[in-house]
Known about the structure:
Number of helices: 5
CATH architecture: 3-Layer(aba) Sandwich
Order of helices and strands: EHHEEEHEHEH
CATH topology: Aminopeptidase
Amino acid sequence: MQIKIRTFQLSDYAQLTKVLELSMSEACFAESISAVSRQLLWDSSLVLIAEIESSKEMTGIIIGTIDNNEGYCYRVAVPPQHRRQGIGRSLMRAMQERFMRRKVRRVLIPLDQHNEPATPFFESLGFGRQHFTRGCHKLSIVAGT
């Protein structure tokens, strides 16, 4: 199975919504769908899609944003049936490359009750305590500002 990472396209919205629903709790979905909508309005190139190349089936999503010249990996969503296949890692690498091209000062992972259980995943990618941030400043895509 060949996975392709690409930028979100408007025609992806229904499938993106479904992937988020399958991947998240109801509360996380409600918060994340508004944030992704705002990010798509501001800079859709930081919403990346993973798909199976042959079937175009969406297998994961990463929502990134840049706030005050810092890159944030806001959400990584991979439906249960596609987990543990390297899709999340591929999405994270692709987002980090986007951030590097944009010359962000550093990449951060905002932790909240929804993605805190994914901390070991981020640590396995080399992120340490200095890369995690908790609610000290609300991201623009979440706050709507």
